[in-house]
Every structure is written in structure tokens, then in C-alpha cells.
Amino acid sequence: MADTDPAAEDLQQRGWKRYEELRPDELAELVQRTPVAFWPLGLIEHHGWHLPVGYDGLKAEQLCRRIATRTGGVILPVMWWGAGGGHDRFLWTHYQDPAATAAVLTTTARQLLQFGFRVLLLVAGHYPWQGLLDEHLPPLQREFDDRLLLWGTEVSLGGDAVKRAGDHAAREETSYGLALFPHLVKQGALSPGRGDSAWPAGRPPPEESRHPGVCFEPADPLFAQMGADARTASAERGEEGLALLVEHLASIVHAYLPAPEGGADPPG
Hints:
The protein is an alpha/beta fold. Helix content is about 35%, strand content about 10%. It has one domain (about 15-255): Rossmann fold. The chain is built from seven helices and five strands; from the N terminus they run H-E-H-E-H-E-H-E-H-E-H-H. It has a five-stranded parallel β-sheet with strand order 1-3-2-4-5, with helices on both faces. Helix 3 packs across helix 7 (about 235-255). It is globular and about 55 Å long.
């Protein structure tokens, strides 16, 4: 009996697969059976002392996985190279030219639709992605008016049906992290004592270039945060909102594209 790949078996049971791991014939079969593509959009950015710098992409990918478990489909690799935000002066942050980011966004989204995907869900973990998506995706939706395009962050994707709050590395995002990838969240790192070495070139940005509401004092445990104290976060708080959002989005996908016989189960 041939050996089996436990990871491959797990993906098969979940009903979704990773785009980059599929052969051309497998992709063609998937598009015929479950033409749903998820694209997590992230960023590399300082997210406080307690969260990984790739938090936005990790959050987006895990949210895509939860929805895809309900709907089936394929998940693309995280788009890490986003643009915009209030942390461009922070160490370990990589912001890109918005025009370059927009070019990758529109080119890839158009290709996916041309390749036959009927549902394209773009989940952004970094809130400034919203502006780029709102600017560049409506023309694609009009061009491919027989397809379903959904885009936004966990704050916007639920619309009026599921209202969620957002912040930066504070209570809300930390709660989502505790729900989605607790092994990467270290609440104990929220401690005082860092100095100006936390800044590129060892000095903070001038006052006039600081984003309102963001903590710019590296000695403060809440450095780089914007919002309610991250130390009040909980996995339960994050899970509550995420579960509602997953249910909402999975229901939209199933209503537009019912699961094929023998495929992923529809929402219960």
C-alpha cells in the first residue's frame, strides 16, 4: 500500500487546497468543480511588541482558511507587499509604492477571473488595503459581471450584517490573533523598557509625521498600538466576531455557487 501524505489528506477532508501546490490538471478540475478562489492580502509591519510583523497576512490567511473550510476552493499565497498606513517610520515595516501594489492586485485578480474562477474573495488584513480594493476592483466587477467578487477587511466584509471593530495591534487585533494563531502571540512581551534603538537610525520620527492615536514611545508597553489596551484582549472576544463573519461569507458564497454533490457541506 502506498504511503499517504497526512497534510494532503487533511486538505482533501477540508475541501480546499493551496493554489501553489496544485498541478495544472488539478487546477482545471478544481475550477470545474469548485471555482472559488481566496486571496489573503497582508503586509510586513510593526504590530507592537507582542504580535508578529506579518500579523496582517497571517490574519487574512487564517480567515480565508476558515471560510474555505465551509465552501471549498483554493487559497492563493499571501500577498505580503501592501501599501499605506501610519507605521512607515517603524523598524521592521515594509511599505511599497501603491502603484506597484495596485498593479499586482489588478493583474492577478483579472487572471484568476480569466482562468475561470467564478467567485473571488479578497481578504485584507491591513486596513489601508480597503482604499486600493475599492478603487481598482469595481471596474473588474463590471468587466466580469457574471462573477462574484467580494473584498475588504474583517471590519468591512460583513457589511451591516456583521459589524466588527478594528484597531492596530490593540485589543481587537490581539483578540483575533489569540483566536487564530495563539502560538504567535506573546502577551508577556507587553512590557516597558525599550529605548530609541527601536527606531531606524536610533531616533523617532518628527511630531508632524506621526499618525494620530498611535503610541510612539518605545518605552511604553503599548508602543505602536492604536486602540484599547491589548492587555485586555481575549481569544473569546476574537472568536465571537470571526465565527459570525465566517458564517456570513460562507452563506453568500453558497447562495451564489451551491456546493457540488459530494463537495463541501453548505452552511448548517
